[in-house]
Automatic annotation (TrEMBL):
Domain Response regulatory, residue spans: 4-120
GO cellular component, one term: cytoplasm
Record has Phosphoprotein as a keyword: yes
Annotated protein name in UniProt: Transcriptional regulatory protein
Recorded coiled-coil stretches: none
Gene Ontology MF terms in the entry: DNA binding; DNA-binding transcription factor activity; phosphorelay response regulator activity
Keyword Transmembrane: no
Source taxon at top rank: Bacteria
InterPro entries according to UniProt: 2C-system_Tx_regulators, CheY-like_superfamily, Sig_transdc_resp-reg_cit/mal, Sig_transdc_resp-reg_receiver
Compartments where found: Cytoplasm
Length: 218
């Protein structure tokens, strides 16, 4: 699935750079660009984007006022403020109007792409039954520095990378063998990723005995 994005930015070169960065992510496509408040509002109303990236300083108004206007019209499209405005009042107003993120120019590509990935994750999790771990992840609260006891970032990255490379999935025994870790340890990490919604699971039936779980990327 590709999400539709509108850029609202009065500097053409900045808009061009932002567009190129956004479209590095395969899930996003920029469908329109406006250079002011009124043109931006018309574009949002007509194109109904999934995401808006808004600058604060516009020739005929502010991005904050534009955000407030669309919220008053019950347009719930997600929005990212990408602006040079770094004062606390601007940040607080944007947060009250439900922005996804507030990015201060100049912003690194990796930081913007991180926010886009969080957008994708929120939308993917929104169709699943939530657990506390999934909710923490949706809200951006689950960071590598705050992993549960017994879950280590390095091993977690290794297991995620292994499953990315093998789309048909692996059992806990297979993960254990490939990474030279204890089977119970492999199972614990796989169940943790399953709880977060990053993995799906199917049952693999053998000739005898109980079926085995096969984990794959969701």
């Amino acid at each position: 699935m590709q999400y539709k994005v509108i850029l609202i930015e009065d500097d053409y070169l900045v808009a061009k750079v932002n567009r190129e960065t956004i479209e590095k992510h395969p899930s996003f496509h920029v469908i329109g660009h406006a250079d002011g408040f009124q043109t931006g509002l018309k574009l949002i109303r007509s194109l109904e984007p999934d995401l808006i990236v808004i600058d604060t300083y516009l020739p005929d108004g502010t991005g904050l006022d534009l955000l407030k206007t669309i919220r008053q019209e019950n347009i719930s499209t997600d929005a990212i403020m990408l602006t040079a405005a770094s004062d606390l009042d601007s940040v607080q107003q944007a947060l009250r109007d439900g922005i996804l993120d507030y990015l201060i120019k100049p912003v690194q590509d990796s930081r913007l792409l991180q926010t886009l990935e969080r957008f994708v994750e929120r939308h993917r999790l929104s169709v699943q039954k939530l657990t506390q771990a999934k909710l923490d992840r949706m809200l951006g609260l689950r960071q590598e520095g705050h992993l549960p006891k017994g879950i280590h970032a390095h091993t977690l990255r290794e297991i995620k990378g292994l499953l990315e490379a093998i789309p048909e999935g692996l059992t806990a025994d297979e993960v254990s063998e490939r990474l030279s870790i204890n089977r119970v340890t492999a199972w614990r990490y796989l169940e943790y990723l399953l709880e977060l919604g990053e993995l799906g699971v199917g049952l693999q039936y053998g000739a005898v005995g109980r079926p085995t779980k096969r984990y794959r990327r969701a």
